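Anyone? Bumping this.
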Amino acid sequence: MPAPARSRRRERPATGARPAARAVWTALGVLVIAVWIFPVYWMATTAFKSTPAMEADPPQLWPHTPSLIHFRKVVDDPLFWDAVRNSALVTGITVPVAVLVAFASALAIARFRFRGRGTYLAAVMLVQMVPHVALVVPIFLTLSDVGLSDSVPGLVVTYLAFILPFAVWTLRGFVASVPKDLEEAAMTDGCTRMGAFRRIILPLTLPGLIATSVYAMILAWNEYLFAYFILASPDKYTVPLWLTHFVTSEGTDYGALMAGSVIVSTPVVIFFMIVQRHLAAGLTAGAVKG
Amino acid sequence: MTSLAPSRRSATTAEPPAPARRRADRTPYVLIAPSLVVLLGVLAYPLVKVVILSTQKWGVAQIFSASSAPTFVGLDNYTKLLGDSAFWTVLLRTVVLTVAMVGLSMGLGLGIALLMRQVPAWCRRGMTFALVMAWSVPTFISTEVFHWITEYNSGVANWALGIQPHNWYTDATQGLAVATAVVVWGAVPLIAITLYAGLMQIPSELVEAARMDGAGPWGVFRHITLPVLRSLLAMLTTLSVIWDFQVFNQIWILRNGAPSSDYYTLGIYAYVKAYAGHDYGLASATAVLTVVALLGVMVVYLRQIAKIGELS
């Protein structure tokens, strides 16, 4: 079953769909769209309102006089660019390393029978279930012991550990769904094992690799809890941490916060839209296809 | 699930070619070594450390002075914890919240996945777009957006409900309801899209055949849809329980990093004990108990994993 889930999409059987029922379903569908899009819409429109417009009563459902004042406040802060650089660094290192390491493990699990394979698989999954909050204190202490607390490498190593279980699991599904016969045929035709890997497995698991990269990217780019615990100096802050400085005990600067959020979310949303099909297919490949 | 992937099974049981098999002795270990190092170093070692910490007195004195080593106190931290009525209140609150969050996320997720099969293509594309959009918004941002929507004076929710000004956070029940909404809003996209992808794997001949045999919509759902989705549902429910039981970010951010005690969940309780109370021993004991409480759920999930492990 190498085909991804969506290629098996079939026309819904025409029987039994009465027009009235169909109208109700469509109305519900539109409601779902509204509920899930509204917070995102509200974030984006708030970012473009001046402060008096934000507090207008009744609320402006769209910015009547669009303003860039909040965006200016964000991009004029030198610490914002520090944070963007730190986040880009953390994400840029974490993603390729995580995908490479996870892919190697996925190959081992899907293509080799070896002693300890089942134990390894169970351990990987067990580790994923340990509450992150439970590990905050010991991870912080462990990183301090080796001098990695309050540092970018410390954060990268931590994120690697949290990405790996999911990434190994997803990639395993993709590798396992490439028929071995294909590789064997390539080797019969004169490919080396490495050549078969490069020409057969790599292209066929590419969607999985992309999906895993995006998952890793979102986690590394968005993570808040561990960054909050591990980083102490403001010049090492990642973007999520930097954004929280708009929240103070005197009140929250929602305009700047929303503008910052728009800037931060945009790259993630774009990447995600591009690859979401692969991600859903990958999740199902891992879970359903065995 | 094997009926859906007959070709795969026969493919994986085929013998690997001889040269690969000879080399296979070492190769898989080399391949898993890097991930093993990271997982052992960052997750397993700290996990062991949590257990050790939980049996020690580990406070301010131990952090700031090298001479006062942590002392072994056996199960003192646990007895202290279990004897504290606040702990039981927190545990009960965490369980109730988890049930509400998981129930709502799974119910809505499954409902939306089924709905996506019933609506016209334009509507389905719109739903996918909205869900994916919501999925990609970072938790801390979505939480702040909900915070803003429920803001005392200018929150659009208060205006829409005609109750402005209204403080959602003086009453913890209302505040936690907002937290639940944030969690569910963020969790449903993954669940709905994954389940929808699972639904696409149901052969329509199967549904047709069942209809011919006189099955109504409910019969089709019960006898075809549910069995096919069972492993996905088990996996998603278990993961949701694990994620929601540890809920921290949403409540933490909604309460501006200073939740009052009627907002405490186990995660927040452990954090407050560790960082504000400087009692790492007690915090670690809380963490260990959290893991133990989750073990029951994990067993179900691990059995699922083991089943898939056997197949491939």
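Late reply, but here is one note on the structure posted above: The first helix of chain A runs from residue 19 to 47.
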